[in-house]
Predict the 3D structure of the following.
Amino acid sequence: MTTTAFDDRDGVIWLDGALVPWRDARLHVLSHGLHYGGGIFEGIRVYGGRAFKAAEHFERFHASARELNFRVPFGPGELEAAMRETIRHGDIADGYVRPVAWRGSEQISVSGAGTSVHVAIAAWEWPHVFSDDARTRGIRLRTSRWRRPSPDTAPVRAKAASLYNICTLARDEAEEAGYDDALLLDFRGHLAEATGANLFLVIDGALHTPTADTFLDGITRQTVMALARDLGIAVHVRHVEPGELDRADEVFLTGTAYEVQPVSAVDGRSYEVGKVTAALAGAYTALTRSVTVP
Ligand code: PMP
């Protein structure tokens, strides 16, 4: 990945209905979305020039906006077409797409009434989040002091920019302590997820994953559960307690960017990259590299 800042690159970004030069895709400092967190986004992977599960991501984009009580002024089909145009223009082979929507600057009171909604889609080459070494040997997680909030405190089902404050705080603290990522509990103290990926434990050959009632029910999570069932691996979706990490044989994370990411340690516990994780990572790679053009 290049280290060039994200506002200083060549290429084009789709903004409110048209492709504009990359450096001109700007918003005003008095945007409601910036001040009060009225923003939602998606992350979509491109494999061999093709976006994986694009329809599901744009459906969720719309669902996230509904959770924040605004409407995206372009339908999921229009956004998918815009994404394809952006990928084509950027000649993206193995990359990442970032659709984002936010409330505009018609007013700056807390009320969101009357604000316009803006939408942008950017795409860039981005083969992997973690190094090859981390991807094969696993990443190290540290349990965070930050917790996923209750569904009556925050719009937990939305991929809402405002919720990522928790993730950034947790991730920065984990990295400062020498870990790769943070593991968050929910407000009740159950295991929840990492800062940008869902959590799976392998116990006696079966998958155990926390019920997604305080965090995003990831598209990769759902895909990996279906792959596991196809492979004859039992899947248990339930509340999982932190102490159960002591009896897990394998631990891994799932997400659009993380894919199936083995975990080698959580706090003081160590894990091997075991057979179940390897089988699911292999199945996921095969699936993502074999999708047909949407
Ligand atoms: N949780 C969080 C907080 C995330 O940011 C992501 C990535 N979108 C996920 C889970 C995994 O979701 P998905 O598999 O749909 O990418």
